[in-house]
Amino acid sequence: MATEAICTEAEIGEMVTSFYASVRDDDALGPIFAAHVRDWGVHLPKMIDFWSSVLRRTSRYRGTPLQAHFALPGLDAALFQRWLDLFRATTAAQPNAVLRERADTAALHIARSLLDGYQRHRSDACSPSSSPSSVPP
Questions:
Q1: Does the predicted TM-score (pTM) go above 0.85?
Q2: What pLDDT digit, counting tens, does each position of 78-110 carry?
Q3: Which domain, by its residues, includes 123?
Q4: What's the CATH code of the domain at 46?
Q5: Alpha-helical runs (H) found in the chain
């Protein structure tokens, strides 16, 4: 399926904006993001570029997500699962079924990859607290 048929940029913008609004309001994730995102006016466009690159292959995103997560203390499988739960709740409200499916599949892969990389990075300094496989499918 051509990337144009998957979703529009407007749909990605709506999804990302809605998702991060729920993240900011979340009891578990909100404080983490509040402590590390200095300017949502900068962060949201970067996340829209990220998801546009993932879903539409626009190559607009420039960044190193894994490196950014290394700086965050205390991330664990439960927090990544909470992120996935909020993401899936956001995509469930999207009318575009192809967007929902592709975004959910990508989000699961991203969460697993970030958790695995984070735990490997942390294991250099201390033992990991949970297994990457603990983020369920």
A1: no
A2: 999 999 999 999 999 999 999 999 999 999 999
A3: 8-134
A4: 1.10.490.10
A5: 3-6, 9-25, 30-36, 40-56, 65-70, 77-92, 97-123
